[in-house]
Amino acid sequence: MGGLSLDYVAGLYDGDGSFSVSVSRHPSIPIGYQIQPEVVLVFVERDSAVFDDIISTFQGLAFRLKRGYAGAISLVLSKEEDVLTFLRKIRPHLRIFTNVRRATIMEEIVERLVSTPYRKGRDRSALYASLLDLVAEMRRYSKKTSNIEKNLPAKKDIEQLIEESKSYTCKEPTVEYLAGLFDAEGYIGIYVQRSPRSRFGWYPRFVANLNLAIYDASILYALREKLADLKPQVKLRHENNTAYFQISGMKNIKAFVDLISPYSKLPTMKKRLELVGEALTLMFNKEHYREKGWRKLMVIIEKLRSLSKRR
Predict the structure, then answer these.
(1) Neighbours of 118 (CB within 10 A)
(2) Residue 183 sits in a domain of what CATH number?
(3) What pLDDT score was predicted for residue 170?
(4) In b/e form, how buried is each residue of 70-107, taking b as 16+ CB within 10 angstroms?
(5) Containing H/E element for 126?
(6) Mean pLDDT across the chain, nearest whole number?
(7) Is the pTM above the cut of 0.85?
(8) Count of domains forming the chain
(9) What DSSP assignment string belongs to 71-115?
(10) Cross-strand pairs, 38
(11) Which domain, by its residues, includes 48?
């Protein structure tokens, strides 16, 4: 298989992907429901070029592009056979707890949907009835809980998910996976803090971070172990149920940039890594002590701000 590595693609889908099975009312079906699996990845338009690489990697699958709000573009896969093929290839490479669980349950659902006896039958209501419990179970691991139907009551229980996640062992992340995850969900940039002792009253602080739900923290601990030489920190914020991974310090950030830059594919992240690299060179050369160098640093920081995911 050519194209992207499966670890990199898994990082993208762990970061910004969605594995879902929608249940909608369908009067023509005896049970009254239609079950539709869907795998979606969403980026802003300037980053959507990576979709061509994904399509090339999974040749023969019927991906389609869908334009959304605020310049967002989705890569959608909804044909049952194609969803099953994609899941079988990508699920072993996922690392985030809730995505692994959702993809595993989804694979079971789609396997039943495409099984030969049901494909030949015209009435799939018996199959749908048997799948509603699986759909409800899958909802427990969703990023967002929506009201599908009143008889699908399973809901996200944060404490229960935290407890369940304790028995989950995260597969060691590769550099390709790390690059995909940071491309999709990570941040690398420069904060400017007040510092009266600095030449111009401010001092730049280089950081790389990643925020996930608290019950998905196992991947962050795995990253902390893998990148131990960079002295990363993992903090749990119980007040809002999030887990926070951060690398800071110029030498550590430079090592991080050097590590993932060759594997990063998303245009926005590649540009951020390039700009942070320029700023680090400027700092190591002590150019920021001179007015010209400081102005150059401020220009770089402004360019980084313009690359916000929301812009």
Answers:
(1) 15
(2) 3.10.28.10
(3) 92
(4) eeebbbbbbbbebbbbbbebbbebbbbbbbbbbbebbb
(5) helix 125-139
(6) 88
(7) yes
(8) 2
(9) GEEEEEE--HHHHHHHHHHHGGG--SHHHHHHHHHHHHHHHHHT-
(10) 20
(11) 6-147
